[in-house]
């Protein structure tokens, strides 16, 4: 659709903005449309790693009995993937319709000094679209942080879900784990139940204090309550509390706990959304999360993963133990504001061939020469190929039948490789 690409460009250009971020701009925008975000049921999800998996577990299961909106970021191929209802993307026609609806209000607010960014506009479209479509519930993933994230304009979600917390977006969200956790705790609202991924005693107390101050009941679980039955490169089997013989096709040890967190939320809302144990079991098993420990080709075998911080990198390295392969061929790139030294060090320990490439993000991406210098601090046998397609092609030409090609370091890289392999 001709206008669609034009409006996508127009949205991206709205990020040319300076100054401290507040919720005032999106508040003004949504007030002009009578605050649709406060007229729908919202399950709000924040955290560092595991948001996408948990969102997909929840939305996929709830959609078995209800009309469910899902908002996630970043998208893999097209912006419309961020806004779906029961797995169906908002159409390009509807997307354009909503931008044309919002545009006069946005231009008026621009003139008044309340310029909404690309993500604020996307968030506003999501809330209005879900309200207009009369969804039974919206599963909404926080973009970054919590307190000042655009999605946090919702006053009273039916639940706040907080997954893992680790050091990421340091300097933006905070310089300590406590500051980052407090930022995520910003989604906790008055009286709305909070569901918490297992935390150490110190962080648990931080979230409990915030929840208590908002009269919000807090629910969590211990990893000891999750009994691992089987783990492989294509599924995980486990028991969690009264839910026996559960199975997820999302691989990796961490997915046992992401799935258990989702089950805890789903169990709480069983009556509200007419869920049975069988529906929950089916919903967890049939959930997918694009770009996270995902096999996108079997011959040659290509595994992609968007891990880009310490916790996610540890989970990736740990999860690779369940994959059977002879040599591990790595195609890697990472943004400069991520923990690239740790990622390079850990991946170097397990990689037989280290191929680096570039990411399409001029402001935050490494220049190939600079990334090569960083890798050479750890190992000399690095192959540098600027073009992402050429890099993955090179990897496939040197891979033998029992080898595994791993593409990781950034979702931007993973996105491009998935697109290339799919088109090929």
Automatic annotation (TrEMBL):
Metal-binding as UniProt keyword: yes
Names of the cofactor(s): Mg(2+)
The keyword Ligase is assigned to this record: yes
Name listed for the protein in its UniProt record: tetrahydrofolate synthase
InterPro entries, per database record: Folylpolyglutamate_synth (IPR001645), Folylpolyglutamate_synth_CS (IPR018109), Mur-like_cat_sf (IPR036565), Mur_ligase_C (IPR004101), Mur_ligase_C_dom_sf (IPR036615), Mur_ligase_cen (IPR013221)
Location of the Mur ligase central domain: 45-265
Domain of life: Bacteria
EC number: 6.3.2.17
PANTHER family: DIHYDROFOLATE SYNTHETASE-RELATED (PTHR11136:SF0), FOLYLPOLYGLUTAMATE SYNTHASE-RELATED (PTHR11136)
Reaction(s) this enzyme catalyzes, per UniProt: (6S)-5,6,7,8-tetrahydrofolyl-(gamma-L-Glu)(n) + L-glutamate + ATP = (6S)-5,6,7,8-tetrahydrofolyl-(gamma-L-Glu)(n+1) + ADP + phosphate + H(+)
Single GO cellular component term: cytoplasm
Keywords on record: ATP-binding, Ligase, Magnesium, Metal-binding, Nucleotide-binding
Annotated family: Belongs to the folylpolyglutamate synthase family.
Start and end residues of each Mur ligase C-terminal domain: 291-410
A GO MF label: metal ion binding
Pfam (any one): Mur_ligase_C
